[in-house]
Design brief:
This protein is α+β, with helices and mostly antiparallel strands. The chain has a domain of about 60 residues: SH3 type barrels (Roll), CATH 2.30.30. The protein has 2 helices and 7 strands, in the order ααβββββββ.
Length: about 130
């Protein structure tokens, strides 16, 4: 014959264990709530341009006399409007396409098999193309 006491304890256990786990998880979640801090919405007068990209570009343009072009050509892709170069300065490598600026300062003007030409305002910087030679 079927034992109803066993069935009652089995069903009670079957519902009590998940319920106790849910209560336990809820308690842990209430203890470990995130610390939400208030933030202030800034207007354009509160923002300092000292660390922004625009001010770095302006500073580099103003002190251009002291800057030397110290990039080494690693690779290039010549071919009209989709030409690009890969240059390296110290440990950083940069990929620049025609018309784009290298570090926001030097604009890539021309790529051919003999030389690569960058422009910074009125100054032209030429890198002799020795890749693959």
């Amino acid at each position: 014959m079927f034992n109803f006491k066993f069935l009652k304890f089995f069903l009670l256990f079957l519902f009590a264990v998940p319920a106790s786990l849910i209560i336990l998880f809820y308690l842990f979640q209430s203890i470990n709530t995130p610390n939400i801090q208030d933030f202030k919405i800034l207007n354009e007068f509160d923002i300092s341009l000292e660390n922004s990209l625009e001010s770095k570009n302006l500073d580099n343009g103003n002190t251009n006399d002291n800057i030397s072009f110290q990039y080494k050509l690693i690779g290039y892709r010549a071919g009209g409007i989709d030409a690009s170069v890969i240059v390296k300065k110290s440990n950083k490598e940069y990929v620049v396409s025609i018309g784009e600026k290298l570090e926001g300062v030097y604009e890539l003007m021309e790529v051919n098999q003999e030389e690569i030409i960058f422009r910074d305002g009125n100054n032209l910087y030429k890198i002799e193309n020795l890749v693959g030679k």
